[in-house]
Amino acid sequence: MRLISSGQHHATFEFGDLRVISLRDGYIDMPPTRLRGEDGRTLDELPAAVPLAGDNLRLSVNAFFVTDGTRSVLIDTGASNAWHDPTMGLIYDAFDEAGIDRAHVTDVAITHKHEDHVSGLITPDGSEAFTELERVWIGAGDTSVFTGRLEPIRDRVVPVSEKVAINDWITAVPTPGHTPGHTVYDVRSGTGHLLVWGDTVHVPTVQFDQPNVSWELDGNQSQARAARAALLEQLTQPHHFVAGAHLDSPGIARVTPSGDGYALEYLAPSIG
């Protein structure tokens, strides 16, 4: 995995015979009280290494475009103007900056149903963001989101209820817990695996070192905790990388064991 270009809103990586482009949708500030210990209570205190924006945690919001030069898949879509506008909804600027024509997006893979991951399918003016869209992959437990502003997309939804190949180099892997349909996408190239997740980790400066710390909005905290533990262990294998929706943009890193937890090594400096 090698960084080959970057800008204010994007970073492009060479990953074997694939290109992975991180697209920055923006950020959201959330209170530290969202973090939960194993007993379900808020943490007594934050680790000293956790940066705050005022009194809040600042979470990056990222999406990822993966292409082999012929076919492409967009994983997550950002928030458009559905949530915390104007600090999010920058993904369309990121597409332009990266030189990606949105008309080339035929497949979108959604990690889960929350607004900052799925709402970018529809632009602020109410039109479809991807005019040639053919399929939207999403966990079967999360398909109820396709109502209201997302109703026009409903006829192209492909529910994922078990591990399934999207194409020759991406497999959808159900990882329920944060939501019933939370899904991780395993991107394979000739040089390794990239696991693209949504809300497996919200606060990287806490949850890698203390993976048992969960998030208030995890629908099933024990299930989300178990899914995170399994994925983190998988990521310690050679030639494995992670791309996270809420890792610091551009959000692509290596994971190694460290004490009772894990260490995160970003492959590029933070954007924004």
TrEMBL record:
The keyword Cell division does not apply. It holds the Pfam family Lactamase_B. GO terms for molecular function: hydrolase activity; metal ion binding. PANTHER family: QUORUM-QUENCHING LACTONASE YTNP-RELATED (PTHR42978:SF6), QUORUM-QUENCHING LACTONASE YTNP-RELATED-RELATED (PTHR42978). Residues 60-246 form the Metallo-beta-lactamase domain. It comes from the Bacteria. Belongs to the metallo-beta-lactamase superfamily. Keywords: Hydrolase, Metal-binding, Zinc. The keyword Hydrolase applies. This is MBL fold metallo-hydrolase.
